[in-house]
Design a protein that fits this description.
This protein is mostly helical. It has helices spanning about 5-20, 30-45, 50-75, 85-105, 110-125, 145-160, 160-180, 190-205, 220-235, 240-255, 260-280, 285-315, 325-350, 355-380, 385-410, 415-420, 425-450, 465-500, 505-510, 530-535, 540-545, 560-570, 580-590; strands at about 520-525, 550-555, 575, 600-605, 610. Helix 9 runs parallel beside helix 17.
Length: about 625
């Protein structure tokens, strides 16, 4: 890790953060807002063909902003309110650094890292531009580049490897997670803040199919959406901040992944609800046009970067996987037919059972909100909006489930759609989103039901009785223990995954060869004894990423005649043998008289294989 580069990057992020805070942004939202603002700037430079220069300029701007702020602050011209440290600050800092340390020592394993998410970062990093139609190494060309740009900016200063990429994404996730504490009315109440800490830890349970040691965005989408909703609530009485915040978050969400449209609709719905509630002056028609204008302006400006991206994709690529296109959807629909569409629907409905982790999450959220609403009503004799929130969350579940069905029908190839490929991963996103919304609604309801509503009067004596005081203290202690245990469980889970996957192809390639960072078209054969890794192209995608070539191929079957084997080998320029393959070794000995070649990385010559030392 380049420590000087890391220091510059940190100073830059602080510079954006303090500047936003000077403009009135919440101290719990300025970190994620600063990150998203940098992503937008990176995107503008990338679309103008100036990515390399832009990555430097965007970071230097942050350092300059920090320098100006320091000069003005020491001169007494700037005054920013800094809240004191709370229990959740220590919790987030401690586990944030612990997770970052674990991720820095992790290796990418999941298939989709190598088919796109890590590969696009490597391309942006070393090519310094967006892919063009000739860059066949990038297949998912319609995927927007938001998270890849943020990670690229980080690794440009800190150094490129699996660990630094994972840390970059964790910074984004952790900054978005920290925003939820902005909704607390009384941040000194440990019980309320620890409910949110426990929610953060619990959310990783529903992200278990991916975990944090992968660059996939299925967790990024809901947690950024949560931060967007928090901001709309926090800024509801500050129109300029509200509209600026909503625009930034809508813009970046649409640039994270095409499927972010669903989450943007949720944000747009909450935004118009807040605008309606807050706009009270004037007659009906004046309020209607005022609300419509601000809402359309915010959403319209927010989606402009995505429309620019769509235009770029249409003009640059003739075809693209998972593209948003009526023609592509029509082709997918025609290829499946009515019978297959109905079968996909039946398969989806069958997933709604207790064996599904996402279904368990749905039932958990419903149960907790229902019980909480009843207890607050019966014990505290206080009305809450938890039942209304529960109904709204169930509506989100249903609508998301329908949209997921549409994705399988219109976007996925037949085999993947019939197998419901990635179902739990996709469903985890909406479970995580609703989990956070439910938790935030719960802590607000609990706070409003407390015996003492005047925050300045709350202390150890401001309880209804000794019983309620002891209950509060015991509940706080239990939540603290569980939130710590569950975060330690996630950290240990990532470490276990790293140990369990130590003999997977990414780790094996790292043992036999150095990664290539120059984009090339070298033909590389990966000899893999595992049929599954070859059949699903996992070996090929890992090699394409590792050796940065669009000509890598994985193969398991070498039951050939000597002449056929010779032709096979000579077709390639390099051969990678990450794991011992008995048939390949025997054929090498028979055809080229090279014995005892078990693993390694080799250059192909007319007389056989020449080992390349790592």
């Amino acid at each position: 890790m380049a420590w000087l580069g890391l220091l510059i990057f940190i100073f830059s992020l602080i510079g954006y953060s303090v500047t936003l805070r000077s403009l009135g942004f919440s101290p719990y939202l300025d970190w994620i807002t600063a990150i998203l603002l940098q992503i937008i700037l990176d995107y503008l430079f990338a679309m103008l063909g100036l990515l390399k220069l832009g990555l430097i300029i965007v970071t230097i701007i942050g350092v300059a902003l920090l320098s100006v702020w320091l000069l003005m602050n020491f001169g007494g011209n700037v005054h920013i309110h800094f809240e004191g440290l709370h229990l959740f600050d220590f919790w987030t800092l401690g586990f944030g650094f612990s997770m970052a340390n674990v991720l820095y020592n992790s290796t990418l394993i999941h298939y989709d890292n190598f088919s796109h998410w890590a590969l696009i970062v490597k391309f942006l990093m070393f090519e310094g531009r967006l892919p063009s139609t000739h860059d066949t190494i990038i297949q998912f060309t319609s995927y927007p580049p938001a998270t890849a740009l943020w990670i690229t900016q980080f690794v440009t200063w800190v150094g490129f490897n699996d660990g630094t990429m994972l840390v970059a994404q964790l910074i984004l996730i952790w900054a978005a997670s920290y925003s939820i504490f902005g909704i607390l009315r009384d941040r000194s109440r440990a019980l309320m803040s620890l409910i949110l800490c426990l929610t953060i830890a619990l959310s990783y349970v529903f992200n278990i199919t991916i975990r944090l040691n992968n660059l996939l965005v299925d967790y990024v989408l809901p947690i950024v959406t949560v931060a967007a909703l928090v901001g709309i609530y926090v800024y509801r009485q500050h129109s300029c901040l509200l509209l600026a915040h909503s625009t930034i978050f809508i813009a970046v969400l649409m640039l994270i992944k095409n499927s972010a449209t669903f989450f943007v609709v949720i944000i747009a719905t909450m935004l118009i609800a807040v605008l309606i509630h807050q706009t009270t002056s004037g007659n009906f028609f004046k309020r209607f046009w005022q609300i419509s204008f601000y809402w359309l302006l915010t959403v319209g400006v927010g989606i402009l970067p995505f429309l620019w991206w769509q235009q770029h994709v249409d003009q640059t690529f003739t075809t693209s996987k998972h593209e948003i296109s009526a023609h592509a959807y029509a082709n997918q629909l025609a290829s499946k037919g009515p019978e297959m569409i109905v079968k996909i629907g039946h398969h989806l409905l069958n997933q709604l059972n207790w064996n599904s982790l996402s279904f368990q999450g749905i039932m958990l959220i419903n149960t907790v909100l229902l019980i909480a609403a009843l207890l607050i009503h019966w014990l505290a004799h206080h009305r809450t909006n938890l039942i209304r929130v529960l109904i709204e969350l169930d509506a989100i579940f249903i609508l998301y489930f329908i949209s997921l069905y549409g994705m399988y029908v219109f976007s996925m190839p037949h085999s993947e759609a019939m197998a419901l490929d990635g179902y739990e991963r996709y469903m985890s996103s909406v479970v995580i989103l609703n989990l956070f919304i439910a938790a935030m609604a719960l802590v607000r309801a609990m706070d409003s039901a407390l015996y003492e509503q005047r925050i300045e009067k709350r202390d150890l004596r401001s309880f209804f009785s000794i019983f309620t005081k002891n209950l509060y203290q015991m509940s706080t202690f239990i939540l603290l223990i569980f939130s710590i245990i569950m975060m330690l469980s996630e950290i240990n889970g990532v470490q276990f995954t790293n140990r369990y996957n130590r003999n997977m192809i990414p780790r094996q390639l790292n043992r036999i060869a150095r990664p290539w960072t120059h984009y090339n078209h070298k033909k590389i054969l990966v000899v893999d004894p595992h049929v599954g890794d070859v059949a699903d192209y996992y070996a090929a995608f890992v090699a394409r990423y590792y050796f940065f070539t669009d000509q890598a191929v994985g193969r398991e079957n070498f039951m050939e005649t000597p002449n056929q084997f010779n032709q096979t080998v000579q077709h390639y320029q390099y051969v990678a043998i990450p794991e011992y393959h008995h048939t390949f070794t025997v054929m090498l000995s028979h055809v080229y008289h090279q014995k005892n070649i078990r693993t390694g990385f080799f250059k192909v010559s007319s007389t056989g294989l020449q080992r390349i030392k790592k």
